[in-house]
Amino acid sequence: MAAAWRSCSLLALSGRFTVQQKLGRALYQSQWVTSHRNLSTSQIAVEVNESTGVAVMKMKKPPVNSLNLDFLTQFSICMEKLELDRGCRGLVITSAIPKIFSAGLDILEMYGKTDEHYAEFWRAVQEMWLKLYGSNMATIAVINGNSPAGGCLMALSCDYRIMTENPKYSIGLNETLLGIVAPFWFRDTMINSIGNRATELSLQLGLMYSAPEALKIGLVDELIPEDKIYETALNTMSRWLAVPDHARQLSKSIMRKATVDRLLTHRESDVQNFVSFISRESIQKSLGKYMEKLKQRKET
Amino acid sequence: MAAAWRSCSLLALSGRFTVQQKLGRALYQSQWVTSHRNLSTSQIAVEVNESTGVAVMKMKKPPVNSLNLDFLTQFSICMEKLELDRGCRGLVITSAIPKIFSAGLDILEMYGKTDEHYAEFWRAVQEMWLKLYGSNMATIAVINGNSPAGGCLMALSCDYRIMTENPKYSIGLNETLLGIVAPFWFRDTMINSIGNRATELSLQLGLMYSAPEALKIGLVDELIPEDKIYETALNTMSRWLAVPDHARQLSKSIMRKATVDRLLTHRESDVQNFVSFISRESIQKSLGKYMEKLKQRKET
Amino acid sequence: MAAAWRSCSLLALSGRFTVQQKLGRALYQSQWVTSHRNLSTSQIAVEVNESTGVAVMKMKKPPVNSLNLDFLTQFSICMEKLELDRGCRGLVITSAIPKIFSAGLDILEMYGKTDEHYAEFWRAVQEMWLKLYGSNMATIAVINGNSPAGGCLMALSCDYRIMTENPKYSIGLNETLLGIVAPFWFRDTMINSIGNRATELSLQLGLMYSAPEALKIGLVDELIPEDKIYETALNTMSRWLAVPDHARQLSKSIMRKATVDRLLTHRESDVQNFVSFISRESIQKSLGKYMEKLKQRKET
């Protein structure tokens, strides 16, 4: 898709694009840019470039941007502010931490806690996805490192995915390998990008794809060398912002509304399913073993 | 797909195909053909070859086969006659105008008119699609030129798409760029051909694909040099007509009925949505600007 | 998919895989294996390897493993036993007859019989699919020969498909060419593997795909030389069994339950549709002609 996308002829817009590409470059060469607004929280750096209308969000929660309750809450608050900001039309999401985009849901939030805690955590996961998948902004994920499980879900929820051209980085919904199961809206989000069959293999086997494999099956849209990835994202964004906002937003809604509504309709039963699944003795035991292994690895 | 299709082994039918291919060639070499019936209207030339059961429909509404109320009405009447004609089993749709298949919906029908007019126009667009997407005939689009927006929809509504092998020609649902939005049944028709992800990119960005790009993502099935395209279409049609009619029609219905029924169920609300959207002041203003631009281009 | 699948990095499981691959090889080298259980029937050979938990089912109904009422009943009984056997986690399905996987539904069951017989037969076809498509086991089809119609359905109902690398063998849902029509759950099963557009072409034209074509469109996952295919299947199975059972089964269910439920909900009307279609005079006549042709072929 990416190649086709880049070379496609957008009728009647070639003139506009030149202007927009200059804007993209201008944003990249930060000395040209005059005004930034800062919406950062302790774990998420957010800058809105007021001249281009593009926000850049950098996740900075060491060591691996794991999605715990606190981080997810900060994320949803950020999204809400950006969404209400009429001057902000596009969002680039990336990581400030080398080699990792996000390690996904924090297992600590799913182990040895009360049912109330599990429910609260899961609602925060749902909220993150609802805000991102249903955003009115044009959203681009710059996947500059590994991106398993919930990290992959975040990337899949954006409108476009650019990944570092590095076969060492991988991405995928690999929950199954931990003995847990991706809920229906993870599944739907993946099917909407890579289709039913590739999703079936992915979920049954908990597959992680290297960057080139991810490109091949459409899990990401482009691979770009690390030192060009940010510039590419901003140039790409300028093309998305060349499209009239209201028509782009309505088109996005016509593509995603049914998927979003499915979770909204079943939100509370989805929380209950998660709580009753994760609190099972067998699941807790297997998560415990997994964390033990991780700990041993770190120590050696 | 096309390559696979061409070389696939149709069990037990190899003998029949030889005969059918001869029929295809016979139709092409018009001196062999004995009887034609003419159903043409002022803007659409239609000839039914009675020996092969194949109708060829050529759109001839200068300058760009734009789909206005009059043309759409002629089209639907034609389709109805062909559908009722038991001797007509296949339909080839193409353009009699060089370099353009169809420019899509006529913007003049959407600008500065009454709500009643918008509603009447939209019902005619719906009718065109219902007749074509749900046709019992085997339908092949010969896309011999540019095919944006409604032109792309017409092509996507056929059973098979052959496009001129010319990278200058492009095809796509680019409504978004004009600030308007493809309705759900345009979306469904595209998803049914190229899948969810490619459709999402197409609709959000209003992408036009050059002929080679269109082949790559499955928006068309084959690219053929201009001087062979008509012959290829007739040969291809002879393969479709080698399949028993009732089984082919039932299989088509099992694939398309749910999509057709969705519009039939929501037809009137779809009309209302269109009318209230298109009559908005902001939309009218942006269409006005667009037409001004087109006029200036012609004048220079 | 296959290549990506083979090289994908399954996080944290590399150690386990080495062990599992040894198990795979161990099963192949049968002298290493200590204990087998035999569940065979007259037309189906079934052996469960108790140390690996893998059952191998070989269809052996000469001349072409056609699916008649008796065979389907034996198949469903086998599946039920395997499903209830907690020690059996994976199933490999293949043919004991050279050059054919299965020729599909037995036409003799659909010709010149009573409506009651048609209904009984169709329920048995449904039961076969429900048992296989919804199995809790990891299922791999080893397609070691031609696999038209119902044979293709069986293969598509497994979790993974490995076909002999031989362009002479072909696979596809070609019912349309016999004048009969694949029901909605055949359609759904195919769409879930190869998507909507390829299914539409397949069903309308009754396409058979050679092994390389089948790989290209995703109808099978891998092509392997005949003498390596069994070993490959067992190695592949060891990778599926490295995934925790309950998470793999829940992921499979989340992908397939809606499709299974659609048939369960409409099971009786699907039987009625089949009976009223197949008992039509025109259909009986065309099946009669087809069988006459087959008979003549055998005699010459």
Task: Walk me through the structure.
The structure is a homotrimer of 300-residue chains. A seven-stranded mixed sheet of chain A has the order 1-2-3-5-8-10-13, sandwiched between helices. Chain A has a four-stranded mixed sheet with strand order 6-9-11-12. The first copy, chain A, starts with a helix and ends with a helix. Chain A is built from twelve helices and 13 strands. Chain A has 300 residues and is an alpha/beta fold. In chain A, helix 4 runs parallel beside helix 5. At the A-B interface, helix 1, helix 6 and helix 10 of A face helix 7, strand 12 and helix 12 of B.
Report how far apart the termini of chain A are.
43 Å
Q: Helix/strand-derived class of chain A?
A: alpha/beta
Q: Roughly how many Å is the radius of gyration of chain A? A: 19 Å
Strand order of the largest sheet of chain A: 1-2-3-5-8-10-13
Q: Oligomeric status of the shown chains?
A: homotrimer
With helices defined by DSSP (H or I, 4 residues minimum), what is the helix count of chain A?
12
Strand content of chain A: 15-25%
Helix content percent band of chain A: 40-55%
